[in-house]
Specification:
Blueprint: H1 5-56, H2 61-74, E1 81-87, H3 98-104, E2 110-114, E3 123-130, E4 139-146, H4 148-195, H5 213-262, H6 268-299, E5 308-311, H7 312-321, H8 324-330, E6 333-338, E7 343-346, H9 348-364, E8 371-379, E9 382-390, H10 425-435, E10 440-445, E11 448-456
Parallel strand pairs: 6-8
Antiparallel strand pairs: 1-4, 2-3, 3-4, 5-7, 8-9, 9-11, 10-11
Helix pairs in contact: 1-4, 5-6, 6-10, 7-9, 9-10
The protein binds adenosine-5'-triphosphate and magnesium ion (MG).
Magnesium ion binds near residues 357, 360, 361, 421 and 425.
Length: about 475
Amino acid sequence: MRRSITVRLVAMFALAALLTFTLIGAALYGVLRGELMRYEQDELRTNLQGLRYYIEGTGDLARWARVTNKMDSLSPANGGVRFWVLSGDPRYTYGKNLPVMARMHTGPDGWGTILLPQRQLPFHTLSTHIAAYQGRPAMQFIVGIDSAPFAHTLRTFLTALAVLCLGAVLGVMLLGYWITRMGLRPLERLSSEAKALRPKSLSQRLNVAQLPAELSTLTIAFNGALSRQQDAYRQLEAFNADVAHELRTPLTNLIGGTQVALSRQRTAAQFEETLQSNLEELERVRSIINDMLFLARADQGEAATGLVRTPIAQEVRKTTEFFEFVLDDLGATVSIEGDVAVEAMIETALFRRAMSNLLQNAIEHSSAGAKLLVTIRQQLSSIWVTVSNPGEPIDPAHLPRLFDRFYRIDAARQPQGEHHGHGLGLAIVKAVASMHGGGVSASSAQGQTTIGFSVPVAPLHFT
Ligand SMILES: Nc1ncnc2c1ncn2[C@@H]1O[C@H](COP(=O)(O)OP(=O)(O)OP(=O)(O)O)[C@@H](O)[C@H]1O
Ligand SMILES: [Mg+2]
């Protein structure tokens, strides 16, 4: 079962209240008990001292009779305070249960307790010896006070205390429940807001304004997650639209071409021509799909495998050789500069793919006779390979988006039907870089456009 914060807090409140009240109760009980004992002792002492003075001055039976009268009158009817006088002469004795008293009280003077027959609680006593005087023998004088009323008071107090304590704990629990519910209300509001979120309402955010500090951090973090989710969702939607759009053009061409071919009688040569142009379109579709599959694999975190220590300049040169004819047609040249001796850890097929995408772009965007430049530069543990070509500067607003899928600066300006890229070339460069744990860069200034990526440098050889 989930543990509820409310239940936990209420339990803790109750425990804290119980502990506090128990401590206070114990202290009060101690104080009351001490006070009652002091009262008992004062009572005993006053009675003893008052009568002792009388008894000491008593030397004959006539005066003794007055002393016993005095003791009678001082004994309350309920028997709460009692007097006993023990002596060798039965005429000079006083009090009930004398044989019991004689058995118990032969000890020294001072405080004591005694349990009388048919009593559940003892009497507290104070006794003193009084020396013989004239005809009166030596005697022991004892004052006793019933402890029952005091015990009763203490018991009543304890019961009241326990009831009050339980009531108070119950009150604290109810109050604690209410306080906790109040305190957690923002949380409830938050979860009902969160429950209302739907994929369609991804632009909605949780309301941070009236939240307590403890919750606002969490909520801000949650809102951040929502933003990222929204971006990803938007990208996915845009990507789907782009894919559909990119595939539609070649398919339209295919269907159109085929319909025209079928519209009337054709010679074998004419059909062959149609099939040839269909094949081109189909290859275009295949290349888009292959590129997308490649990007999807990179997205899933596939890393470059079979990394090989490779002299990077040599690999660049091999790639440029593929473009020899195009370069010759254009009258353009490619030179390689920088740290030409460095070696990188790369998967060669991937590296060449990225490199040729960069070269292709550079060639496409330069005019006849252009001088292209490939620069190799080591920076810490990365090797940056960049391709520069002279050309119209790119608006800085476009630069960070060049590596997005299907992103083309001049897509709108490109005439329909004419061959143009699908905007996946640089996305693949970025994927290749990230498969090697590297990054990408793009800049455009002073008539030079420079786009590149990085791969890890090969560790030093120790021979
Ligand atoms: N060297 C460059 N000079 C100027 N613009 C460039 C250069 N390289 C890329 N771009 C711009 O960046 C866009 C994206 O390039 P990318 O290689 O991703 O796509 P593409 O070349 O249009 O198509 P693809 O490479 O898939 O055939 C291009 O459409 C172009 O507008
Ligand atoms: Mg390209």
